[in-house]
Write a structure and sequence with these properties.
Helix content: under 10%
Order of helices and strands: EEEEEEHEEEEEEHHEEEEH
Number of helices: 4
Strand order of the largest sheet: 11-12-13-16-15-14
Number of strands: 16
GO cellular component, one term: extracellular region
Keywords: Digestion, Disulfide bond, Hydrolase, Protease, Serine protease
Strand content: 25-35%
Family: Belongs to the peptidase S1 family. CLIP subfamily.
Low-confidence stretches: 1-31
Number of domains: 2
InterPro entries: Peptidase_S1, Peptidase_S1_PA, Peptidase_S1_PA_chymotrypsin, Peptidase_S1A, Trypsin_dom, TRYPSIN_HIS, TRYPSIN_SER
Radius of gyration: 16 Å
Pfam families: Trypsin
Shape: globular
CATH class of the largest domain: Mainly Beta
CATH superfamily of the largest domain: Trypsin-like serine proteases
Largest sheet: 6 strands, antiparallel, barrel
CATH architecture of the largest domain: Beta Barrel
């Protein structure tokens, strides 16, 4: 995986659900660049959010038997009929169990212009059956400043101009401090690295890309982040995630 892409990149600017962002604020909805093919069952909490035509558009993670956790920029404006939850597979073209959606809950303080509070929940219409291919991931209750060996996974683009993979990709990356993250971004982008976000830094040629949005960042067996935005793709700038520990209370209160 190189970099997770959140939304979609236009020449010189990015349109986010109808909003035009500064030219240097590039987002992605994509796939991990410079990553590795995941094996069956390696990331049993990984979810593929798909349209009514079975097209993957974002990632998510299983947090209980009726709810998956994703990014608000993935789900704002989507209908239940056009949001399907596929669990239990590492391949887009086969396997897994597809669930219809019964409810979408976007964070009430989500801001489409800045991607602040980029968190959402999708309730499945049927119960998710757990097995070796479909399991929950614990939600972190701890604010982590730095760490190595964090795991990001997703079906985002393999590069800014590349297609999405059929096989789930994963990447080992490093969590860096918010101060370091802000210092590596432009002034405009640094202003969008909020205290309730978490950043990772990978070598150039690795990172998140378009299509990875909404997917999980995991360290120590706990989900630490939700893929939110980055500079596409794998260009050496930090990727930015909504911080799970900061939103944990809201998530637990609404995933019922």
């Amino acid at each position: 995986m190189n970099r997770l892409s959140l939304l979609f990149v236009l020449v010189g600017a990015v349109a986010v659900f109808g909003s035009t962002l500064p030219a240097d604020y590039l987002e992605w909805e994509g796939r991990i660049v410079g990553g590795t093919n995941a094996a069956s069952g390696q990331f049993p909490y990984q979810v593929s959010l798909r349209s009514s035509t079975n097209a993957h558009f974002c990632g998510a993670s299983i947090i209980n038997n009726r709810y998956v956790l994703s990014a608000a920029h993935c789900t704002v404006g989507r209908t239940l009929a056009n949001t399907r939850v596929v669990v239990g597979t590492h391949l887009l073209n086969s396997g897994g169990v597809a669930h219809n959606s019964a409810r979408i809950v976007n964070h009430p303080s989500y801001n489409a212009n800045t991607l602040a509070n980029d968190v959402s929940l999708v309730q499945t219409a049927s119960v998710i059956i757990f097995n070796n291919l479909a399991q929950t991931i614990n939600l972190s209750a701890t604010f982590i400043n730095t760490a190595s060996g964090a795991l990001a996974s997703g079906w985002g683009q393999l590069g800014a101009n590349a297609g999405i993979p059929n096989n789930l990709q994963w990447l080992s990356t490093s969590i860096i401090t918010l101060a370091d993250c802000r210092g590596r971004h432009s002034v405009a982008n640094a202003a969008r690295v909020f205290d309730n976000t978490i950043c990772t830094l990978s070598p150039s040629g690795q990172g998140m890309c378009m299509g990875d949005s909404g997917g999980p960042l995991v360290h120590g067996g706990n989900q630490q982040g939700i893929v939110s935005w980055g500079i596409p793709c794998g260009l050496g700038a930090p990727d930015v995630f909504a911080r799970v520990s900061s939103h944990r209370t809201w998530i637990l209160n609404n995933a019922v």
